[in-house]
TrEMBL record:
Entry-linked Gene3D superfamilies: Alpha-helical ferredoxin, FAD/NAD(P)-binding domain, NAD(P)-binding Rossmann-like Domain
UniProt keyword annotation of Repeat present: no
A molecular-function term among this protein's GO annotations: oxidoreductase activity
Lineage of origin: Bacteria, Pseudomonadati, Pseudomonadota, Alphaproteobacteria, Sphingomonadales
All residue ranges annotated as the Dihydroprymidine dehydrogenase domain in the record: 26-136
Keywords from the named record: 4Fe-4S, Iron, Iron-sulfur, Metal-binding, NADP, Oxidoreductase
Domain spans labelled FAD/NAD(P)-binding: 151-458
NCBIfam families (UniProt xref): gltD_gamma_fam
Keyword Iron-sulfur found: yes
Designated name of the protein: NAD(P)-dependent oxidoreductase
Cofactor names: [4Fe-4S] cluster
PANTHER family linked to this entry: GLUTAMATE SYNTHASE [NADPH] SMALL CHAIN, GLUTAMATE SYNTHASE [NADPH] SMALL CHAIN-RELATED
Length: 485
């Protein structure tokens, strides 16, 4: 009887891929960790306990078959592991890199609860699909017979790209409209290369283009075409624009030069990585080189900003956050990486004003303390009287999260219903908006969320859209009858 390759956690310790030394990785935008060698991936996969109730899968928004592809990896059956991983996710190697596994699958691993350290699920997931790309196992999309119907996807982020892929595979003509000059949304322009190198995203986009999906770049719905015009052109539409309006800070001096929004800063950096001309970077406005940088916020976007500033050669980088470490919304792994790279965290602190005559020179802040829980259940920060202090700053980056843009007005569609938060209102059974045949998914429905949830929503809305289009085709009169009429 063959030896069981699993449950080795009792003798094999948790071992993530080694990170490059902080001093070395601070000099470039390459990913900070290499991937496993085959033997190490097999070893770490074998630590899975194959538990009867796989909490890792339950807490994964995609409900990936994690224990199953871990076992296949441990047995050396990598192609089968890839095919199983690919069955539930359109971007497994991207999720393996940027998902907050410590809050999702790994954070709910049974052997983590037992004190043995979680299985390194994300690193194995990355390894499986990177290997599949190298070995040629990632096959082209082979669409079914042409259905004679087309869909339009507004927004080329993870939700939109997922829906585009799944609908094209079903035989629909697919057009993707995006206001940027490259697809990927925040995967391309929001997330730095040290977390997600851009060729990883671009090869996914190239695969979609090769399948016959048409991308319309630099296309702004509302000016290049109204939503009504796109509805006339297509049999169904998906709105998957994400949420991009930065949350504001109300404080004296916030409009002074050098106080910038996180997404403007990150987009400029990522564009430079592509080799683009970026005037606001080249004139120094969005370049941290030689500057005292203060980033305000405690989420993953704030961590992206502080770590980017380090790589740009900032003189100092501080992160100002109004709660403590235990209550920050960002990944604890990202916080640790930032600390290793020289970022200083100023906990329980909030900005009160920005100094500077035309150009920022400092941030005046106050110490905070945590009071009673707010409506979300988190303890609300409140100012500590008499605790004011000042930080020198030549560049201040606001990273307080994102809200929805005014899509009804932006799209010229006043009858598009929104919630009180500005997100699109949908029927959660059909995933349609208030307009027939217009669907919505991703952050524009959820609010700012995770990439893995956007992929899940893209997968779900493809199912709903497919049912809608089949019913529409069935209800349509035969061509000869329509012509006669």
């Amino acid at each position: 009887m063959a030896e069981n390759p699993m449950l080795s956690f009792v003798r094999v310790g948790q071992d993530y891929p080694a990170k490059r030394d902080a001093e070395l990785r601070n000099d470039d935008f390459r990913e900070i960790s290499d991937r496993y060698a085959i033997a190490k991936a097999e070893e770490q996969s074998s630590r899975c306990s194959q538990c009867g109730v796989p909490y890792c899968s339950t807490h994964c928004p995609l409900h990936n078959h994690i224990p199953d592809w871990l076992r296949l990896t441990a047995e050396g059956r990598l192609r089968e592991a890839y095919e199983l991983s690919n069955a539930t996710s359109t971007m497994p190697e991207i999720c393996g890199r940027i998902c907050p596994q410590d809050r999702l699958c790994e954070g709910n691993c049974v052997i983590e609860f037992s004190g043995h350290g979680a299985v390194t699920i994300g690193s194995v997931e990355k390894f499986i699909t990177d290997t599949a790309w190298e070995q040629g196992w990632v096959e082209p999309i082979r669409p079914l017979a042409d259905r004679g119907q087309s869909i339009g996807v507004i927004g080329a982020g993870p939700a939109g790209l997922t829906t585009a892929e799944l609908m094209r595979a079903r035989g629909y003509e697919v057009h993707v409209y995006d206001r940027h000059d490259r697809a990927g949304g925040l995967l391309t322009y929001g997330i730095p290369g040290f977390k997600l190198e851009k060729e990883i995203v671009m090869r996914r986009v190239a695969r979609l283009e090769a399948a016959g999906i048409t991308f319309h770049y630099g296309f702004a719905v509302g000016s290049d075409a109204t939503l009504a015009q796109l509805r006339e052109k297509h049999d169904a539409l998906l709105i998957a624009t994400g949420v991009y309006k930065p949350r504001a800070i109300k404080a004296p001096g916030v409009g002074v030069g050098g106080v910038v929004d996180a997404l403007d800063y990150l987009t400029a950096s990522n564009r430079k990585g592509f080799g683009d001309a970026v005037p606001a970077f080249d004139d120094g406005s969005l370049d941290a080189a030689g500057k005292n940088v203060v980033v305000i916020g405690g989420g993953d976007t704030a961590m992206d900003c502080v770590r980017t500033a380090v790589r740009q050669g900032a003189r100092s980088v501080k992160c100002l956050y109004r709660r403590d470490r235990a209550n920050m919304p960002g990944s604890q792994r990202e916080t640790k990486n930032a600390e290793e790279e020289g970022v200083e965290f100023v906990w329980l602190s909030a900005p009160e004003a920005f100094d500077g005559d035309g150009q920022v020179s400092g941030v005046r802040a106050a110490k905070m303390r945590l009071g009673a829980p707010d409506a979300s259940g988190r303890r609300a920060p409140e100012a500590h009287p008499g605790s004011e202090f000042r930080l020198d700053a030549d560049l201040v980056i606001k990273a307080l999260g994102f809200d929805a843009e005014d899509l009804p007005k932006l799209f010229g569609a006043d009858d598009l219903s929104v919630t009180r938060w500005g997100t699109l209102r949908i029927d959660h059974k059909t995933m349609q908006t208030s307009l027939d045949g217009v669907f919505a998914a991703g952050d524009i429905v959820r609010g700012a969320s995770l990439v893995v949830w956007a992929i899940r929503d893209g997968r779900d809305v493809a199912e709903r859209m497919h049912l809608y289009l089949k019913a529409k085709a069935k209800a349509a009169p035969p061509l000869r009858e329509a012509v006669a009429a």
